[in-house]
Amino acid sequence: xxxxxxxxxxxxxxxxxxxxxxxxxxxxxxxxxxxxxxxxxxxxxxxxxxxxxxxxxxxxxxxxxxxxxxxxxxxxxxxxxxxxxxxxxxxxxxxxxxxxxxxxxxxxxxxxxxxxxxxxxxxxxxxxxxxxxxxxxxxxxxxxxxxxxxxxxxxxxxxxxxxxxxxxxxxxxxxxxxxxxxxxxxxxxxxxxxxxxxxxxxxxxxxxxxxxxxxxxxxxxxxxxxxxxxxxxxxxxxxxxxxxxxxxxxxxxxxxxxxxxxxxxxxxxxxxxxxxxxxxxxxxxxxxxxx
Length: 291
Known about the structure:
It comes from Cognatishimia activa. This protein is an alpha/beta fold. The chain has two domains: 241 residues, Rossmann fold, CATH 3.40.50; 32 residues, no CATH class. The protein is 40% helix and 17% strand. α1 crosses α3 and α5 runs parallel beside α7. The termini are far apart.
């Protein structure tokens, strides 16, 4: 049986976007200068890190007898602490993220994917494991994971007006990055962050907005419609809505900032006409602070 023509066209369009997205993400990642990473820690894992001398409290089972036989001392074989080196990404694929007020400016989803993939490249280069929130693509290392991440991001096709953060299968004590406009149901964001916090997950909320969503530069007669036409409002005096809209937007930002604070996360708002390098540097440093 052949695939549905519309589904095939979307798949082909996503595939044609993949190499340019990877190239842009690599270029962007290369603009960020990485210092000493310093995340490697001893603990439960499967990758060798170092040998250390036996200490008080170590059991005989912990001793690496092969290494110890080569010297006059006894050594323990330490492995890397994997849990805190796992980062899960959620990039909102909903219809509202397709919005751009200027045809020369990328939609919010393009900027969100670019930032998420670029920070993934930086993290993977630094030895981290990165994956998508949920169960489809668990955190892994290596260049192959970067390709899989970009493929998975482009394959996501959530056609609801607004996205719901994915908080399933979060690895305890790991980190997460949620990138969205967060213009939908606030209770869904609360539920996801409280669920993550209960598992010891700390992370970053990066709100991506179009400049028009920030400034509300509308006047006169206007029809405001969600991307899927599920919500619509018509007015003859759009400028009369300016103050109320700005107040509601500020309330949403304040709520996101407060939610991030009480759950141990960090919040930042990024406009698509702002320098993308600045947003990437903030995002990477925020993850550094949250480890």
